[in-house]
Amino acid sequence: MALNGTKLGLLALAGLLLSGCMQTTYQAAPEANLKPNDKAQLAKARYAKVSVPEPFRRAIVDYHRKEAPGTIVVDSDNHFLYYVLDNGKALRYGVTVGEEALAFSGIARVGNMAEWPKWTPTADIHKRIEGLPSSVPGGIDNPLGARALYLYQGNKDTLFRIHGTNQPEYIGASISSGCIRMTNEDVIDLYNRVKMGTIVVVLDPKQGDSPMNSKMALQGGSGTATQ
Known about the structure:
Belongs to the YkuD family. The protein is an alpha+beta fold. It contains five helices and twelve strands.
């Protein structure tokens, strides 16, 4: 059946409106989050200041799961961390996660928080990587980056962390020793939102159910979001 010009125009308009609704708006972490020491440390960064692929940049998105506002949810399958907001929204950040055999999953809580933390490699890490020092002082060259959230179950430290990184080029990959890495700017933003005792849900492998998975996103797929 042939369509007249009016109907064609309405269909085109509907298509534009739909595409507008499905457009994701990405935003940088606010500069106001940075303390003087943060600015001084970041200015000394010797790592490549690469641009994180667009799908893994900070965005406010529609959120369909039922966790309470203030909860952190990590979808390791798709390399996303969500900080749940009110009214069906969440802040979504891109992350680096552990290789499958090393990754943590389950429910934990934030049992400790630190700014520019020192790094003490675990015995397992020493076994896998030779020549590491017993500890590395906090600072821009430290693998934990600008902030660290220490994940506990009960009163026991799981030894898994959500922390910054001096390797931002790996955001969106599965290469860490099990911890969840964010860009330093993003982890500062998240750190400013959470408190001791915040619940952290790390979804089991193959259970990621993000509205948009990372493979789709990198191929140019769209998810819903608002600024």
